Amino acid sequence: MNGLAPGWFLAAIAIGACPTTVLGQGVLWDNGRYDESSNLASMRNPMIEAWTVDDIVIESDVVITGYRWYSVLRNRFEPTGADIIILTEGFAKVIELRDVPVEVRFVGEVMGVPRFQMDLENLSIGLPRGHYYLGARPVSDREGDDGYTLLTRTISGVTAAYFRSVFFGYPEWTSILNIHGSPFDIGFTVFGQVVREEVRAASLTIRLGRHLGGEISDLHQSDDRYVTIRDRALMAMSLPMIRMEVEGTTAVETASRITVTVETAASGLPNQPLQRLALFDYIAGQWTTIDERAAPPVDTVVEIVVVDDPARFIAPGAGQLKMRLDWFDPGATTPWGVRIDHATWTVER
Ligand SMILES: [Ca+2]
Ligand SMILES: [Ca+2]
Ligand SMILES: [Ca+2]
Questions:
Q1: What pLDDT score was predicted for residue 332?
Q2: What's the confidence (pLDDT) of residue 134?
Q3: Which ligand sits closest to the CA of 131?
């Protein structure tokens, strides 16, 4: 164990606004910026290797294209590159890239020690949705060059930062709580694109029929928890007896494929009502039927894949999607109804 501490504390000092880089990409996760509350070793040189990582939770499948963090670089440390590591929530390695080009930008000094914004760009790391740890570190071929990742007291995600360094006496991933005695996060940002997202309904409207039970969250998965609706009084023959609309929002910018999944059933009747499934076409400004069938008397999954210009079913800019389910009069002489167990979209880039 070397006598060096893995990090050192500084009094909190307000520093000026950070110059921002426009990477032309979406922000997948923003952990905020460092606040000078603390820092922790994170570097690779011929003598020392240390990692500091922090967690993110991503709800959709993504491609990570950039990672930004802030570093103290000592002894005129000019990195030859950087390493990035991504771990599962159990700290199993997902990927480690070494000697990646890094953009280093001076952002200020505290007590004569310079701080730098560090950007990894042009990454292409596909990740399924989940809870991960990420970290990066500057690399040098000189022994004296030290890098320290700048931290913040604002905790995002699920946990505070973790650290690992054989050199500093932490051969296993160790919570910063056990190193600094209080929690800190890394100030970092992850850039990239959502490539596959399961979109759950965020609003539910029963336009025709009487809403008997269930709420919007009952549509989010197939679990035999339902929205139930009964037929309306018969007045306008041409309109459906039951009409349900749901709306959701996707972060996928350019959709190449939308899969619509619904699971429904209707009361058993001498003639089953016609069930019609439609998506709202924002370009044409009208509903487009994507499926029509006799409503099944038991829970039945209908999965419709839309590959013919699916982007028209997403509101430009806002990312909204609208789905409509109609059930038409089966000529029944007794009251009847429907139940909807599941109604979601899966949007793929
Ligand atoms: Ca965290
Ligand atoms: Ca079911
Ligand atoms: Ca359900």
A1: 82
A2: 98
A3: 1
Of 266, 219, 284, 273, the C-alpha closest to 246 is: 219
Distance in Å, CA 292 to ligand 1 centroid: 47
Is the residue at 336 inside a domain? yes
Q: What is the CATH number of the domain that holds 258?
A: 2.60.120.260
The pLDDT score that the predictor gives to residue 317 is: 87
Q: Are residues 157 and 121 in the same domain?
A: yes
Name the domain count of the chain: 2
pLDDT for the residue numbered 14: 29
Indicate whether 16 belongs to any domain: no
* Same domain membership, residue 185 and residue 39: yes
* List of residues 6+ apart from 260 with CB closer than 8 A: 277, 279, 290, 291, 302, 303, 304, 306, 323, 344, 345
Residue 313 CA to ligand 1 center (angstroms) comes to 36
Cα of 218 from ligand 3 centre, angstroms: 4
Question: Average per-residue pLDDT in the chain?
Answer: 91
The whole-angstrom separation of Cα 345 and Cα 198 is 6
Q: Are residues 164 and 33 in the same domain?
A: yes
**Contact yes or no for 118/136 (Cβ under 8 A):** yes
User: Per residue in 246-277, is it b (16+ CB within 10 Å) or e — as a string?
Assistant: bbbbbbbeebeebbbbbbbbbbeeeebbbbbb
Strand partners, 279: 288, 323
Ligand 3: centre distance to CA 211 (Å): 15
Q: How far is the CA of 2 from the centre of ligand 2 (A)?
A: 60
Tell me, yes or no, whether 168 and 54 share the same domain: yes
User: What residue spans of the chain are helical by DSSP H?
Assistant: 177-180
Q: Are residues 46 and 130 in the same domain?
A: yes
Where is the domain boundary, 139, 170, 194?
194
| Ligand 2 centroid from CA 264, angstroms | 8
Report the pLDDT value the prediction gives residue 84, as an integer from 0 to 100: 98
Which ligand minimizes its atom distance to the CA of 162? 1
Domain check: are 205 and 177 in the same one? no
**Residue 259 and residue 168 in one domain:** no
Residues of the chain with pLDDT under 70: 1-25
Domain containing residue 156:
26-194
| Nearby residues for ligand 2 (ion, Cβ within 5 Å) | 224, 299, 341
